[in-house]
Amino acid sequence: MATLPASPSPPWHTNPNPNNNNPNSISIPNPNFHPDQSQTLDFDSLMSPQPQSPSATTTPPLPPSLLQLSFNQDHACFAAATDNGFRIYNCDPFRELFRREFGGGGIAHVEMLFRCNILALVGGGSHPQYPPNKVMIWDDHQGTCIGELSFRAAVRGVRLRRDRIIVVVEQKIFVYNFADLKLLHQIETIANPKGLCSVSHVSESLVLACPGLHKGQIRVEHFALKKTKFISAHDSRIASFALTLDGQLIATASVKGTLIRIYDTDSGTLLQEVRRGANAAEIYSLAFSSTAQWLAVSSDKGTVHVFSLKVNSSGVPENETSQGSSSSSDAAIVPSSSSRSFIKFKGVLPKYFNSEWSVARFHLHEGTQYTVAFGVQKNTVIILGMDGSFYRCQFDAANGGEMTQLEHHNILIPETAL
């Protein structure tokens, strides 16, 4: 159920439409988005006045507990949901942009919309700021909620596009029009406690991926084409997946966590298979680079892997364009001196040896949940940890190997306190 708070004037910024003759209609801001998808907001103007520095005898307050970390759509910023509010950070250069604290009220989910003033909030923690079954639309210019969406079950996840709000509950996904909070679509899913859902961010098309109704199945909705594609991605339950910005490719991982598969979302064709490792692992996140040349993977093994993708912009494996009909899953990253002998035994060796391995990796603390994304600078990876850690690393695209750590911060502790 969508509701808007009572107000003598529309709580959303007005956007008069001369073709709309309905006097009761409410237009929700778009808020002056630029076509280059890089809306910029002056975050410094939103900063609350900072309190004076405590005296030397004052005990500094304990840092809040993290409940969620999430990147914005272009991975230039990220949001931290805490047990007393939320904070927004810039990735490169790293700095806290602003924070909102609610006097002990917790936020379980905070979803940014690029760099604009509109965010989606869901209450959580031991003392939720808002009911966990509601999505609150927050306008940080006004410093208040300007709309809400209510559900019968707890909200597991929220995704924002410039034209849509996608809300995930345990076994259903709701798609709303951003302009008027009108419900457009409902999608049934298998049990989805992690709130798995991914959407494209190219304005010309809307592609949504979510769990299907069967174990190991991915459902892909091509709304512009009015087409639904079901992909039997794995034999085991789905643990994580991610779309490219245009929604043409999807990377999937199962609860086994050993293999990651890349599919064409239009045809459902398996284009490539890469191997994270030999032992089972919980995959925390997957992320494509903006050009879909690289794929980053984080797991509970404490290692972030970067894989080289052999798929061109048309979704065709590169080795098919140069070597006819050979399958991308038959290729492997091996030393050039042994490549001929390896190909000779192709199809005979176990699949373990046929899988493609990562080009680069970075080792972290095992067991900590990390979220990954590619940075603005070339060949850089941003890593966010639920222990408050922020890493920016760089990998060698030609030689691979261990990544170089460029910087490290604890996002919950001011630099001066370290």
UniProtKB/TrEMBL annotation:
Please indicate which superkingdom the organism of origin belongs to.
Eukaryota
Kindly list the biological process annotations in GO that this record carries: autophagy of mitochondrion; glycophagy; nucleophagy; pexophagy; protein localization to phagophore assembly site
Q: Which SUPFAM superfamilies match?
A: WD40 repeat-like
Q: Spell out the subcellular localization from the entry.
A: Preautophagosomal structure membrane
The UniProt entry, under InterPro entries, shows: PROPPIN, WD40/YVTN_repeat-like_dom_sf, WD40_repeat_dom_sf, WD40_rpt
Q: Where is the composition biased (Low complexity)?
A: 14-35, 48-65, 322-333
The record ties this protein, via Gene3D superfamilies, to: YVTN repeat-like/Quinoprotein amine dehydrogenase
GO CC: one term?
cytosol
Keywords associated with the record: Repeat, WD repeat
What membrane topology does this protein have?
A: Peripheral membrane protein
GO MF, any single term: phosphatidylinositol-3-phosphate binding
What family is this protein classified in? Belongs to the WD repeat PROPPIN family.
Q: Where is this region: Disordered?
A: 1-65, 314-333
Transmembrane parts of this sequence: none
The protein here is known as: WD repeat phosphoinositide-interacting-like protein
